[in-house]
Amino acid sequence: MNLSPLALLVLELLAEREMHPYEMRQLLARRGRDRRIRVTPGSLYRSVERLAEDGLAEVVETSREGRRPERTVYAITGAGREAFAYRLREMLAKPVDEFPQYPVALVCMHALGKQDALDQLARRRVELEAEIARSQTTGPREVFMVDLDYSQAIRRAELSWTTQLIEDLTSGRLGWPERAAQ
Predict the structure, then answer these.
(1) Which end of the chain is less enclosed by CB atoms within 10 A, N or C?
(2) Nearest of 48, 2, 46 to residue 24 by alpha carbon
């Protein structure tokens, strides 16, 4: 089963203890997991429901307190634990093509014209430098925050690569098509 990143995070939480989706959303935000994927109430509830439909999670309790909406508490199943571990191992071990926006912008930048593209790349370089400076971590590190280290490494690599691209375009080492916008 190909679990989505959100489904994986839900199963991670349910592996800790039984909980309802509202509590899951709060915990994901408190732990900063929402900086990795977009978590909306609708997407979270759909993901939990799909996990239940697929037999990876199950309803353990439904209750209502006063006028509050009904609250459904879920637990992970044995199949859910197996699917979680399998998908997690797969995601850690196998590189996949992801589709970030920057490469798409790079293949289209010639449509702006060389100087405009250089101006935008310079702005990106400044933004990357600021993000790197803001994200410097101090103090003891824990495995729960290793994604921040990864983000820092990716940002530093992107900054280095973008700086080199600017230099290559400015010096002429990288050609600019004559028919492209000037």
Answers:
(1) C
(2) 48
Residue 179 lies in a domain: no
| 78 and 145 housed in the same domain | no
Q: What is the pLDDT of residues 57-94, one digit of tens each?
A: 999 999 888 887 788 999 999 999 999 999 999 999 99
Same domain for 66 and 128: no
112 CB burial (10 A radius; 0-12, 13-18, 19+): middle
Q: Which domain holds residue 114?
A: 101-171
Residue 131 has pLDDT above 70, yes or no: yes
Structure tokens belonging to residue 44: 């979270």
Q: What is the pTM of this model?
A: 0.78
pLDDT of residue 181: 54
Q: How far is CA 124 from CA 105, 129, 149, 165, 181, in A?
A: 12, 9, 20, 12, 20
